[in-house]
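[Help] Beginner question about ligand-bound structures

Sorry if this is basic. My supervisor gave me a protein sequence and a SMILES string for flavin-adenine dinucleotide and asked me to "get the holo structure". I don't really know what that means in practice or what format the answer should be in. Inputs are pasted below exactly as I got them.
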Amino acid sequence: MKKSFDIIVVGGGSAGMMAAGRAGELGARALLVEKNDRLGKKLSMTGGRRCNITNAETDNRVFLENFPESKQFLFSPFSQFNVKDTFEFFEKLGLPLVIEDRKRAFPKSQSAQDVCNALINYINQSKNVDVQLNTAFKSFKIKAGKIIGINTSAGTFFADKVIIATGGLAAPETGSTGEGLNALNEIGHKIKEPDANLAPLRTKSKWVHKLSGTSLDDIGLRFIQKNKTQFKVRGRILFTHFGISGPMVINSAHKVKGLLKKGEVEASIDLFPDHDLGSLDKFFIKLFDDQKNKKLKSLLNTLLQKSLVEAMLNMLESDMIDLQVHSITKQQRKSLVQIMNDLRFPIQGTMGLEWSIVADGGVDPKEINFKTMASRLYPNLYLIGDTIDINRPSGGFSLQLCWTTGFVAGTHSTKGF
Ligand SMILES: Cc1cc2nc3c(=O)[nH]c(=O)nc-3n(C[C@H](O)[C@H](O)[C@H](O)COP(=O)(O)OP(=O)(O)OC[C@H]3O[C@@H](n4cnc5c(N)ncnc54)[C@H](O)[C@@H]3O)c2cc1C
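Answer (accepted):
No worries, everyone starts somewhere. Holo just means with the ligand present. The predicted complex, written as structure tokens, is below.
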């Protein structure tokens, strides 16, 4: 077994495969070390196994607005490899992409495994990359303050450059369990404690759990603290046996976590976000007038999902469920309208790392030179993908970050050979 390489890439996920393939393409003798028995385990699960491979916003400036805390770092790597390059890159590998709603791009084949296979082909094309599976990276091999290789479960491997692509802590069952971050911390890198970021939200409200499986397509969702709306979003919500989920909820988790640090948080669903309380009441006055002889429950069932109507009516006076519309009092109508405008429940937290798509935390971006992705502490060490602490929404932004940082590190680490 060869023990000495130009470059070692640790972690065979999205970012690591891109970096290893690029280094091999440029002629470097590279080793890709992965502890799983296959490459791209997390990648093959992405986007409901369809892989939301990037977001088709081709203006770098607009694209990077989605990285509010880190865009200043990202202009440089995105000037080297951006969304347009991602489209061209995968098309060249025989994997055309299609664009769906919210500019989300997917492989035309609708298969995340095809994305993995395309990257594996890329790695194999140059014949310069050795892949070492079932091998766990343990620590850096350091001599006179310089990284000269890595210690692994299969012994020590030496290289001039090392690229760390071991991921964050989200979905640890795919292999990203944090050893890479621990090793980086041991050699002096500052690591922000990982925590769930893009994750579903948890509530103890039983009526929410009971609605598990129900989804509402276009609702308003407010997050309230101390009786004041802190922020609101609009879109699709999915009820689950523990709380709420769906892209809109998952993308709110980062801010909700911040609020929970300051105190209790409530979520409030607005079932008719085009109406305020006054106009919703007017709408129901007219509706009740037109449908006087209908049972309230049957009328509501024509507007909303049955399970939701049941849950709402249970929150009101018990006999309302059987009332006919003409016998509903003004007060009862107002209570009903109030609930439809402000269906509240407490939020206890996120569902944690196991359920999260992306974790907060990782290497402080200030410790990285983003022109090359090299560490500012060790010039022959490169850090890419989810190992870096970069907050972003769902929608293809995470994988684009992997393609960009992987490409840039793969390119610059080969310089000087
Ligand atoms: C369910 C799910 C769906 C997602 N869907 C999307 C989506 O559609 N679009 C999108 O943009 N993003 C999506 N994401 C996020 C995206 O998958 C990640 O941001 C991305 O895969 C991170 O890539 P990475 O290479 O940095 O890390 P990872 O993919 O986590 O890869 C790290 C690799 O390093 C290996 N490793 C770790 N420690 C060691 C060690 N000590 N020794 C050797 N190897 C090690 C791991 O086994 C793993 O293979 C999704 C995430 C999840 C969990």
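A couple of things worth pointing out: The chain is about 35% helix and 25% strand. The radius of gyration is 26 Å. Feel free to follow up in the thread.
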